[in-house]
Amino acid sequence: MDWLFLLEVSLAGLGSGGLYALAALVIVYKATRVVNIAIGEFLMLGAYVFYAFATGMAWPIWLAIVGAVVVSGALGAVVERLTIRPMLGESPISVFMITVGLASILVGAVELIWTADQRRLPEFMPRAPVMVGEAFVAPKVFYGFWVAVVLALLVLVVFRYWRGGVALRATASDQGAAYAMGINVPRVFSLAWVTAGAIAAVSGVIVGAIGGISSSMGVFGLSVLVVVIVGGLDSVAGALVGGIFIGLLEAWAGAYLGGEYKLLATFVVLVVVLMARPYGLFGTREIERL
Amino acid sequence: MKRIRIGSGLSRLLAPLGLAAALAAAPAAQAAEDLVLGGSIPLSGVFAFAGQGIHAGITDYVKIINDQGGIKGRKLRYVPEDTAYKVDASVAAFKKITSQNKVNFYYGDSTGFSKTINAELNRTGDILMTGASFATELNDPAKYPAQFMLGPDYTEMFGILLRYIAKEQPGAKVAFVYSDTEFGRDPIASSRAVAEKLGLKVATEIMTPPGSVDVSTEVIKLRRADPDFTIFHGYVLAPIPEFVGQGKRMGLKTRYMGTFWTMDNSTVMQMGEDAEGFMGVMPYRYYYDQAADAPMLKKIREMRPQYQSTGYMQGFLAAMLFSEVAKRTLDAGKDLTAANMKAALDGIKDFDTGGLIGVPITIKGNSIPVGRIYRADVKQKQMVPASDWIVLK
Amino acid sequence: MRIATAKQTYLADEALFDTRTQHVWLALLAASLVLFPFFANAYWLYLACLVAINIASATGLNILTGYTGLVSLGQAAFMGLGAYTVAVMELHLGTPVLLNLLAGGIVAMLGGLLVGIPSLRVKGLYLAISTIAASFIAHFIFANWQFTGGTSGLQVPPARVLGMDLDTSFKIYWLIVPVTVLMVLGAANLFRTRIGRAFIAIRDRDISAEVLGIRLLRYKLLSFGLSSFYAGVAGGLWAYFFRVVTPESFPLIMSIFFLAAIIVGGMGSILGSILGAIFMTMVPEFLKLVVGWLPVGGDALRLISPVRTIVFGLLIVGFLIFEPHGLAEIWRRVRRFFHLWPFRT
């Protein structure tokens, strides 16, 4: 048993798991009860906008990141206003299908503007290899992981202590009561989507920095979706735990079984978890009423 | 009150359909004299950069031939359709083009399409086909009698690379890194056998899921195997830069190589400094090659002042060979059936491609087993030759 | 205005097509279906066959998602099961075409039953995502099992009926269209029976349905099974039509295509599946036509594919926001207008 190999693989898995967790931050669901299958495409758009700013317009990297975050947040607000708001009160399946359509629109738009070629983002992360003891960790994955952890902690804190975060949670648990308490529910929705867009942009930039960008980057969103479901749709802690779990699992499956088993392992675990705990590991049980 | 019986039925459905049918079904009026070259071209989608090049290459050569008066007085007409590299779109394009024109030659955009359409080709028996694919499976004249490829097949490409490795460093360790697609898996099993025959050790075979973002696990596996040479296949660009970049930073001593579709100058140079020393096999000369015996390259540079990709060269060669086959078949007084055209193609020996390929070519089976090893020179930002022209038996 | 439709027997009352006008139009439709292949060129025949296959599969999906309310993103995987079964049987056993199609349907049905088992515990969106899992697991099996030809897939010889090879679109039209018509009629009839009504009850409120005595697991499984049977037969027809089956032939995007087709057409109505399948299959062709007319030249070719993707997404979003009951509802509105004319309501 090659322990060093296992350690290295596990570290790689932790890194990618952190990325999943970041992208899976369940802000959107928490406030608006919408599962956004287009999260991968939001990621992609954030990465492409960063590419456009950093390469096309030659802005400094930090400015390009800020620009990407702003544009992505704006996109989140626009999407929410135009497509999600009219669907208030409709069945969640319909809204889910809207996000499916949205994913298609985003992919088409990216292909139209930038073509479907794969591109590389400009290098901006430190390139020296990172050694944890004797184990090697890819530097991009390492730094990406820490960014993800910081952002996740930030989100957790915001949810608990900031008034806006409390408003988000209140809207999620009972819209009617939130209205009654004077919470500006439409504004809360917009805020949720804007934040989701912003965080997606950051994840997109990191993911793009690691593997390059292309119009089929959105497939990353499927793994994120699995993480969200496994962790529980309305639990941030679930997203973190789920992300790390799925990241490790994929890394081990890829290393010991072969590259083709990665997605298979992920989905098999999904089915098993759903059978055991239908609302995810940390999700709250939905009580259906007649 | 009058009883009005307006259609409650399907007249509303049939009328617009009928109108659309009438509009679109009228076949384009064409001169019976024209020779038609149809194409399922990936003008958009993941293969778009190659598709645009192929499209430009075919268009340019068709123009050259028509400017010279056509083939025995008959003009060559190029009818392309975009497929976004999807097999069913390719098939649909094929059916559309063949129902509206009398097609003599066809260019297919993928291995999948070439295999799918084979039965139909053999049934109609009057189209000669080539395409973007160099799949080993297609290099079988018995199973694919109406098709050929514009270079060595993928196993032959691996063979060229492995022979180079065996000469440079006998008994070296090689690693295969390939993508989990039909394109990627095609040559691996047969190349493993070739490597073993040449006395090389296949240290590891790493398959990456298509569209995978993070290859850190695979890079770790590569590091474990510690090969002397790593051959990539089944990719256009990603994830090669990640492998090469992380590998170099880890201090891996392996040298990196690729097959045809990874060898375009613009994609390799996107790797930046890491591209230095990247090698691979290519059957064509590059756009910027200033060799003296390459009049066609000079002509291409006149027609197109910016860099043209390897896909352009392939499209150009396709149109060139189709024209040559048409000329020889018509010269022999034969009809343009697939069998006659394939026979004419097989008769092509020591054909001068005008410098596109550095040596006169002969078709063997369904492929042109010729190629040269190139190396990336980052200072010049060009791929430069690293060996002579190799002709496989 | 529709008048003189009083019925005198229960049988007549329950009939699917009960007025003379409908009978006349049905006869015209049948006649046009029979005459179409003699007047259409190869391209239109190809499209007609493709549309028929899509109608069959969309009808199946509508049974599951439109009528029973169980969202499934695994329709393509079940089609793949059917297609591979047919391919394997045709290649290795050489059994007759109809038997192969039936076997394809049954294998897909078994797959559907398997996927449906979690449906009691797992609801709504979670179920949809577990069907995505089924899609990937099926793809994995197809790509990695030597029996199914691995990544190169299988090449299917043309179907042999009465000693004749069905190798052109013209010939295979006569296999695909009758099978599709049969399946669509079957589905329409299903919803006159208590099984169909049970499905609708489950969609509307499954807890109430259970209180009413409908055994949830049994009927949900039945719904999955039926819908995947349809998908399996459609997949088998697909295999005979395209004659090559590879793991890449049935991607997740195809399942999304079918879901979009029934959303656009109208969930919960047979006419919706037909209209939706026709519409979604013809839109890319129509787009190509439109772009061909525009005087933009060669570069327009490059734009077709991304525009098609955008239009696909816009259709889904547009119909969901503005016309959630789909094309079928538009159709019904127009029909109602003419039925009630000169009255408004």
Number of domains of chain B: 2
Helix content percent band of chain A? over 70%
Q: Give the rounded overall mean pLDDT of chain B.
A: 84
Number of strands of chain B: 12
Task: Tell me the structural class of chain A.
Answer: mainly alpha
Helix content of chain B: 25-40%
Low-confidence stretches of chain B: 1-8, 18-31
* CATH H-level superfamily title of the largest domain in chain B: Response regulator
- Portion in beta strands of chain A: under 5%
Word description of this protein:
The complex is a heterotrimer of chains A (290), B (393) and C (345). In chain A, 72% of the residues lie in helices and 2% in strands. Chain A has 290 residues and is mainly alpha-helical. With 393 residues, chain B is an alpha/beta fold. Chain B is built from 14 helices and 12 strands. In chain B, strands 5, 6, 7, 8, 9, 10, 11 and 12 form an 8-stranded mixed β-sheet that branches. Helices cover 74% and strands 3% of the residues of chain C. A two-stranded antiparallel ribbon of chain C has the order 1-4. In chain C, helix 3 (42-67) runs parallel beside helix 7, helix 11 packs across helix 12 (270-293) and helix 12 (270-293) packs across helix 14. The longest helix of chain C is centred in the middle third of the chain and has 27 residues, at 216-242.
What key phrases describe this protein's structure?
heterotrimer, A: 290 residues, mainly alpha, two-stranded antiparallel ribbon, 2 strands, 2% strand, globular, B: 393 residues, alpha/beta, Rossmann fold, eight-stranded mixed beta sheet, four-stranded parallel beta sheet, 16% strand, disordered N terminus
